[in-house]
Amino acid sequence: MLNKLLTELSDEELIKEYQDNNTPEAYDILVKRYKDPLMNFVYRFVGDRDICTDVVQDTMIKFYLNKDSYRSFAKFSTWIYTIAGNLAKNELKRRRRRIIFSIDNSDDERSPQIEDKMFLAPDKAADGEMRNEIIQKALLKVKPVYREVVILRDIQDLSYEEISEITGLAIGTVKSRINRGRAQLQKLLKHIYRE
Amino acid sequence: MKKIYNDEENKYSKLLKDLKELPKIKSPDNFEYNLLTRIQNKNFGKMIIERPQFSWAKFLAPSAVVVTTITLFFIFFPASQENNNQLLQQTKPGNNQSVTDKTTQDQIKLNSQQSVSPNQKLQPNSSVLLESNNQTAKQSVRSPFYDSRSIRLDDYISGSNKNQSNTNRGNIVNNGEEPSRYDGFIVSEKPDKKTLERYRAVVDSIKKAQLKADSLKKVQK
């Protein structure tokens, strides 16, 4: 009965319930609601499924530990996306450092191999699965500052205001970064998007 | 502005369509189970940030370094400071009269005026208070030489020049921008009462003689 009621609550009401009464069900519902969108966001940003799972787990742990740092004037979604985004960026930095200091830093590890597939025949490239893979690898080649906002806007479908809140940037900056990101992506995928 | 961004969106319409159609990544089935297990086992990894605790050692170490640096600076560079102060006290290069000459001239001027006001006092260190145009200006007679680089002959003979160090003599090498001055012996003669009275008596007698000569001339005429 209680669960049924809780599922009908909004994100903000649920977090309030969890903050005030420490209701574990409220936390569970929020985890259920956000685990997949966050997985999608982090995977597109990091490009590795295992790392992505770890980052989202860490996001939920951070949410569990720091529930009181959430303030009701912000949207819960922007708060949880901010945590996930920061953790994903930290993970990227850690990976980059590991690659630099790695003894066996082969080229395979350093850059995603999208060039090879981009020169495939157009009919093969048009194949849905392959196309998605090429887009994902091209996305990983876009600068992280642009990549983050492009993912949030064009994949996660968030508003400019929400992205501005998540990234802590002005809306104008968000818009210009999105455009630059798109331009970079289009340039990387010029073999697919031939005029 | 909105139009610009709409145009941009049209420009990338195909790309945007593809991005939206990218397959949604879903969390693994055991995601929640693993999460709850981690929470139950309190396996938070690096999630708990340890706040740095205040320690006196951390607080005192930088301040000790600062104090030591300042102390060492004053121990090893007193000479340079002394030199700087001296540069401020230097008289202009054109003023190349000896101390004794200037003092004597001042004394003669004083004697010639005959009336010494209470404000006009002869200072022990050859500094004289002169009253001119109703303004009192303090003029101190200073040595044209670098005191630190010169030897006071009187002090040297009497053996009271213990405070003088040879460190400043080396600074002449460093201070190459200014032309070096004469490093000579200073014969400083401090005015004593007897000398003053003797000079005063001489000047008075000359003046009296002059007055007598003038009065005789007038009588003869």
Provide a brief overview of the structure:
The complex is a heterodimer of chains A (195) and B (221). Chain A is an all-alpha fold and 195 residues long. In chain A, 75% of the residues lie in helices and 0% in strands.
Describe the model.
Chain A has 2 domains: 1-106, Rna Polymerase Sigma Factor, Chain: A (Orthogonal Bundle), CATH 1.10.1740.10; 114-195, Winged helix-like DNA-binding domain superfamily/Winged helix DNA-binding domain (Arc Repressor Mutant, subunit A), CATH 1.10.10.10. Chain A is built from 12 helices and no strands. Helix content of chain A is 75%, strand content 0%. Mean pLDDT of chain A is 85; it is low at 105-119. In chain A, helix 3 (24-46) packs across helix 5, helix 4 (49-65) crosses helix 5 (76-101) and helix 5 packs across helix 11. Chain B is mainly alpha-helical and 221 residues long. Chain B is built from 9 helices and 4 strands, in the order H-H-H-H-H-H-E-E-E-H-H-E-H. A two-stranded antiparallel sheet of chain B has the order 1-2. A two-stranded parallel ribbon of chain B has the order 3-4. The chains are: A mainly alpha (195), B mainly alpha (221). The A-B interface holds A 28, 31-32, 35-36, 39-40, 43-44, 49, 52-53, 56-58, 60-62, 64-65, 131-132, 135-136, 150, 154-155, 157, 175, 179, 182-183, 185-186, 189, 193 and B 5, 8, 12, 14-16, 18-20, 22-28, 31-32, 34-35, 38-39, 44-45, 47-48.
What's the overall average pLDDT of chain A, rounded?
Answer: 85
CATH topology of the largest domain in chain A: Rna Polymerase Sigma Factor, Chain: A
- Count helical runs of chain B: 9
Largest sheet of chain A: none
Strand content of chain A: under 5%
Q: Tell me the CATH architecture of the largest domain in chain A.
A: Orthogonal Bundle
Q: Please tell me how large the radius of gyration of chain B is.
A: 43 Å
CATH 4th-level superfamily of the largest domain in chain A: RNA polymerase sigma factor, region 2, helix turn helix motif
Count of folded domains of chain A: 2
Average pLDDT across residues of chain B?
Answer: 68
- Largest sheet, spatial ordering of strands of chain B: 1-2
Tell me the distance between the termini of chain A. Answer: 57 Å
